[in-house]
Amino acid sequence: MTDKQNNVSQPTDWKLIVEKDVKIPMRDGAILYADVLRPDTSGERVPAIMNIGPYQKDKVWIPPYDLDEAANPYLAWETGNPLYWCPRGYALVRVDSRGSGKSPGQSDPSSYAEAVDFYDAIEWIARRPWCSGNIGTLGVSYHANCQWRVAKLQPPSLKAMIPWEGRADLYRDQTFHGGVFAMGFLANWIATNMAHQVMGKPRSYNPGAFNNNMLWQWATNNMDSEFWRARSADWSKTTVPFYSVGNWTGMGLHLRGNVEAFVNAASKHKKLRIHSGSHFHPFHSNEGRLDQLRFFDHWLKGRDTGIMEEPPVKLMIRTGGGNASSYQFRFEHEWPLARTQWTKKYLKVNAATQNKTAACEGEIVDAPVSAAAQCEYAASPPSHAGVSSSAPSNAAGSVDRTGISFLTAPFAEDTEITGPIVLMVWVSSTSEDADIFATLRNIDPDGKDVWEEGQQGGQDYVPVAKGWLRAAHRKLDAEKSLPYRPYHTHTERQWLEPGVPVECHVEIWPTCMVFKKGHRMRLDIQPRDGVGSSVYRHYHADYNTGARNTVHAGGDKQSYLLLPVIPASVA
Predict the structure, then answer these.
(1) Contact, 37 vs 18, CB < 8 A?
(2) Worst-scoring range by mean pLDDT, 258-267, 362-371, 454-463?
(3) Considering only CA atoms, which of 403, 439, 421 is closest in space to residue 508?
(4) Which end of the chain is more exposed for a tag (fewer CB within 10 A), N or C?
């Protein structure tokens, strides 16, 4: 550690003050309940780190045994540990959002109204006699998304925030990936949190908790609209200093928003960090907490920790088959990387129909393909007994292979791919719509997948990257689209004509992978979730039933991947 890195708040043997069920008044007269955990500093005022959400402030989280932070009676899911922060001169404030936990009222998770409540809570806490008036926000996932939503309201006392692995655009990042309903995670999240509230302890003191028609409301609003804009970040109004933290394995929820924030937010002081591994280990790691502490010490205490002098981008470089403990970070000055060699790799079709074996139907080649060709596959392959044709299930639920695959030649040397990716593909269908599920895989010389540790940890393994697009949602926003990151309007449906090919630009979420010499990149194009989808699965709508989809490539319909190749030597 450098001298400035050592210039962080050191733990002090202060007594821990725990204030339960603190009543925080809202502007409309409602009361929200919070727990305040703070050090007894004998009159010295301290900054507060806050979060709001429906996870119940009183619910203790029991962490896995290999976490850098040990279990304790004050540890809560996806929030800071008081036994780490309070001895270092910070208060932690956890607020039950309206209609959850101890807080009565109408439940509306991830809403504009919740952001307004968070604003009021921030300003009320800032005025407490023990508080310095400087407020930071910190937390993972839901507790990151609530930070993006309150940031656009610009509460005066909010001085810095660390949205750690948090979706920002609730339509594109979470609920409708490329216009495809991502119900696998969402339906389970709603059911689980409802059960915690109505079948757990909250029922005894807040029987009306989590009373909302959330799944119906969200599914009904299946095009982008003000419904989603109110629930999402507004980058033009995001001016607070922030440290945006994503996870390469977070495709489906915990990556896109963090990158979009760094690129587009109006904040003059912003940093981006992307790591790998599980959803919870990096947040609680010694290394991760040091980044958090250095950032908050700088903005909430005015300590010179050197963190703002470092390059603004910190990336964990994945070399295949490892976890967070085996990969190294690298600093960069921008995103995407200025030295990126944007490289088109073209799809070459070798089979007219899907192979029933494991053989790939095509190749990924360096040059445009002169001869036009096409490959057809079933949009709704037969499934095992007990698996509904429209259920959110992965390819393992099908009797046959789903979709088709393309494979590169073995890489002649180690090749780094770091940045956003686009799949430009021509597709047609016998139906009025088609879903495109794109999966990038790292294949070793023996033909086996090289997996990465996924968000859930343990045996949750994921591939290199994923992207999605519903073909009827292919319309691009000309102002917001970039050559390497398409932005779809999702405000109208351009239905397919049977058998007529259309050009689709599929946004594949950012990734980082060094493909080792002799390894290959595999692209799967499928009508439903493929390998390594984990819990982030999708609804397979009725337009797929009985349909046949076709990928076109070559000739006047060049289909290709746009890859961010990083030169081996760093300039």
Answers:
(1) yes
(2) 454-463
(3) 421
(4) C
> Which residues sit opposite 524 in a β-bridge?
405, 439
Model confidence at 252: pLDDT above 90:
yes
Number of other residues whose CB lies within 10 A of the CB of residue 73: 8
Q: What is d(CA 438, CA 426) in angstroms, rounded to the nearest whole number?
A: 13
Q: Which helix (H) or strand (E) holds 177?
A: strand 176-177
Q: Check residue 256 and give its pLDDT.
A: 98
Omega before 368 within 30 of 0, i.e. cis: no
For residue 164, the cross-strand partners are 140, 245
Judged by DSSP in three states, 117 sits in helix
SS3 sequence of 461-474: EECCEEEEEEHHHC
Query: Which of the four pLDDT bands, split at 50, 70 and 90, describes residue 571?
Result: very low
Secondary structure of 83-116 in HEC code, one letter for each residue? HHHHHHCCEEEEEECCCECCECCCCCCCCHHHHH
SS3 132: strand
pLDDT category at 67 given cuts 50, 70, 90 is very high
Cα 46 to chain center, whole Å? 32
Give the residue among 141, 194, 196 at the shortest CA–CA distance from 163: 141
Could you report the per-residue pLDDT of 509-559, keeping only the tens digit for each? 999 999 999 999 999 999 999 999 999 999 999 999 999 999 999 999 999
Tell me the torsion sign for CA atoms 495, 499, 505, 509. Answer: positive
Assign 3-class secondary structure to 351-375. CCECCCCCCCCEEEECCCCCCCEEE
Q: Is the pLDDT of residue 391 over 90?
A: no
What tokens appear for 37 in the block? 């955990």
**Beta bridge partners of residue 508, listed in sequence order:** 421, 467
Identify the pLDDT of residue 460: 87
* Mean pLDDT (whole number) for 18-45: 97
Cα distance between residue 512 and residue 328, in whole Å? 12
Is 63 buried (19+), middle (13-18) or exposed (0-12) by CB count in 10 A? middle
What whole-number distance in Å separates Cα of residue 76 and Cα of residue 410? Answer: 46
User: Contact 341/321 with Cβ under 8 angstroms?
Assistant: no
Q: How many CA atoms lie within 13 A of 177 on its CB side?
A: 32
Selection from 363, 345, 283 nearest residue 67 by Cα: 283
pLDDT at 394: 47
Cite the DSSP H helix spans in 182-268. 183-198, 202-205, 214-220, 226-229, 256-264
Among residues 125, 59, 116, the alpha carbon closest in space to that of 91 is found at 125
- pLDDT digit string, tens, across residues 114-156: 999 999 999 999 999 999 999 999 999 999 999 999 999 999 9
Q: What is the pLDDT of residue 396?
A: 46
How much is the pTM? Answer: 0.96
SS3 158: strand
